[in-house]
Amino acid sequence: MAISMTFSSALLCFFFSFLSLQTMSQPPQINHLFTFCNESNNFTRHSSYHSNRLSVLSTIRSYSLLGKITYGNATKGLSPDTAYAMYLCRGDIDKRTCSYCARTATLEITKSCTYQKEAFMFYEECMVRVSDYYFFGTLEESPNVTKYSLNNFSVTSSFGQTFSRKMDKLILRAPSTSLLPKPYFVVDIERVTEFGTSYILHSVVQCSSDLDPSNCTVCLRLAVQDILDCCSRSRGAQIFLPKCLVRYGTFSLPVNVPNLGVIKGNKIFERTLIAVMTASVLALVGL
């Protein structure tokens, strides 16, 4: 009997080890949002900039693998053929997902924007950017992408005010985290009860760590205003600007639930807005 139990335990351990290996062998799930290729500024194949771009994208791909969790940047080559690149991962994803997202984005950007000097690749989990001009430390509003739920709060709900107050608090906190391992990153979970309904509000604000605190604040306020302008009653949304992001989701609860426990929700994002600004053109596309 003892032998049988030992054998069964060994089989059980093997089974769970196999499941664990199977899970680890599967790539993390990432969700593409938007690709921007600046068609007004191109380069030729085998040029110095082409070589520098491949090199700088390879460098930030390596940075993400080395555990630079949320942000990395690099520069390659001499003027006028210098290439600059960066990646920004959401602070609430794990290292493996960040590395996979950054790697995927750096590879996809060379396929989708084959000969464009400036390009952005946005995913829900990360963004990658490459350019022929220096942009580190610079606040920019576009291109940006917003994805939001078509499931809305009622017109009588005060969610817009609740969201604004929450964002004001998180934006005030974000600059104070500039020296932490995940700089300019704040996540918050709160239970909200109003008008006989109760829900969980899960919020994330984050800036690229090359910004100074004042520009981080401005970037986040721009992002929040864009959400308020497009979808203030939506039950979930995410906006990615070149140097910051805001993300939130809501999950309904019975009013008399005594504690949060484990909250599981349906997929909240169902529509995407894309805003792109080049030298003199602003386009807004609803998908």
Automatic annotation (TrEMBL):
The keyword Repeat applies. InterPro entries: GNK2, GNK2_sf. This is Cysteine-rich repeat secretory protein 6. Residues 31-135, 141-253 form the Gnk2-homologous domain. Pfam families: Stress-antifung (PF01657). The keyword Repeat applies. Residues 1-25 form the signal peptide. It comes from the Eukaryota. It comes from Cardamine amara subsp. amara. PANTHER family: CYSTEINE-RICH RECEPTOR-LIKE PROTEIN KINASE 9-RELATED, CYSTEINE-RICH REPEAT SECRETORY PROTEIN. Keywords: Repeat, Signal.
